[in-house]
Amino acid sequence: MIFILDNNFILDLISRRALNYGVQLNLTYLLLSKGYAAISSSQLHNLRYVVKKSYPQYENEYLEIEARLKIIKTPSYVDLNHKLANLDIEDYLIELSAKIVNAKIITSDKQFLKNSEFAITPIDTFLYLFKEEKKVEFLPLKKINDKHVVDIEQAIDRVLTSGWYLLGNEVKNFEAHLADYVGVKHAIGVANGLDALRLILKAYIEMGIMAEGDEVIVPANTYIASILAISDNRLTPVLVEPDINTYNLDISLIEKHITARTKAIMVVHLYGQVCWSEELEALAKKYKLKIIEDNAQAIGAVFSRQTTDNRQQNQISESATQSHALTTAIKTGALGDAAGFSFYPGKNLGALGDAGAVTTNDDALATMVRALGNYGSKQKYVNEYQGLNSRLDELQAALLDVKLRYIDADNQIILKTTTSFSLLLSVVRRL
User: Fold this and answer.
1) pLDDT tens readout for residues 238-274
2) CATH number for the domain whose boundaries are 3-135
3) 8 Å CB contact between 250 and 241
4) Domain 152-404 adopts which CATH fold?
């Protein structure tokens, strides 16, 4: 929710000249406190000039307000034949900025109000806010992206002006930042989450670790992409029922499904819940199985493992060592041999379209996945494998790199919301 403040609104506010000054003051405070207030980049030069010339005594006050406003860029597409452009070019440029983010423009200018569907009076803004606050959208993707609109605009502009749209620096930067965030050596951008899982399995086949007809244990309760990635590679999915408490794969049921053809276990971290345990690790080690994580729903989630401080182990007794146990938090995506990520728009880390990634600490696997996702090629026009066209583009990489900076903060908001809902649900169940 964004509101662009028209020039007359700001000038009336700082000069205290409006009859409804109290309304303007309260409204400005409300908008600034919620982070809703904005200004079009086309307004900046004019406002600064007018304030400096006509209201020099309020210049510092204006600059303080300006510093707290979101700046929405004025787009380059301008239709000088537009009705509003002929009436008032300044109002037209502000409207163009409003269209980008679907913002309202708060103004007292009667001409602006009459000729722009985006213009709204200060009083009507209060009514609009009250009505909007009562609405609860199921998945407000636009509002999520609007929080980072300035950074996103800069990222998009950077890609557009670079003239390079595939396999460039934006993808390299995002891959490096994602690998660092997850805590792995390699992150490879791909076209979507399904391809991430497909490419991991395809790479294992090319490496001779798996073969057609081999079995992959997978939870029966998962999105179809987990299964399609297996069947697409002519491997056999072996469905294992979920744990009734988490709806994640029931690890205690895995061993009885392992056969001589079993080559991997695919765990799915559903709803942000980590599906992992030391028992799972022991099974994989015992039967020499790969563990593949479907991490489409749990970026940022962690598994806490108890370890000991090896630096002190030779200096103290065994019993004392136990008292120096440490907890190591490992993010999902770094727990197994490889992991597939989805950046579908509805995910915690969502693109503006389809996108995905593979993470791993296995150098050979990373090299193979990268080649297979690029037509089976490590070198241009030299195609060693029957690969796919599954590459993360520069535009999505640039956008995801922006949103990755805020993923932990965004996850905390989700965590607080779900915790509150869980507490409410537990109370309802007791009634």
Assistant:
1) 999 999 989 999 999 999 999 999 999 999 999 999 9
2) 3.40.50.1010
3) yes
4) Aspartate Aminotransferase; domain 2 (3.40.640)
